[in-house]
């Protein structure tokens, strides 16, 4: 439950920061009139929709969660450095960006601990250990992240933080069905 609540706080912060940035810097449109977004995790395969996520084995869903979190660590770090040089941004926005980075690291650590506990209890196999870091490394596309507008970048993160929260809830329901999810 703690990791789900923590994930919810990250999503709430990213939603607030996204709104602030979109108000200050409206998203750029491409030729078709749609926002030009190429998210850092665009090449990562993730379950598309709740129904599909519910069918994925627990180990694989846990791995997807860890890969998403790991893939955002470096881009968020660069984003924070970039945000520090924005003179026109209020301190509150910079504070939110830094807090999000810190919370993503804490959430990843918390999920790793929960994963270890699930492995020791035999709920999931030990084949998961170490997969997230090596597989996610290829998805951290910092150059693309640097070329995005701030509001596009945080919109992508907000979308992925929502995925993480949903996947965690699904995982909880599959591990503890007595919670009548």
Automatic annotation (TrEMBL):
PANTHER family: PROLACTIN LIKE, SOMATOTROPIN,PROLACTIN
Stored PROSITE patterns: SOMATOTROPIN_1 (PS00266), SOMATOTROPIN_2 (PS00338)
Domain of life the protein comes from: Eukaryota
Single GO term (MF): hormone activity
Protein's recorded name: Prolactin
SUPFAM superfamilies according to UniProt: 4-helical cytokines
Annotated family: Belongs to the somatotropin/prolactin family.
Source species of the chain: Anas platyrhynchos
Principal location: secreted
BP terms from Gene Ontology: positive regulation of receptor signaling pathway via JAK-STAT; response to nutrient levels
Classification via InterPro entries: 4_helix_cytokine-like_core, Somatotropin/Prolactin, Somatotropin_CS
Subcellular location per the Swiss-Prot or TrEMBL entry: Secreted
GO CC annotation: extracellular space
Keywords from the UniProt entry: Hormone, Secreted
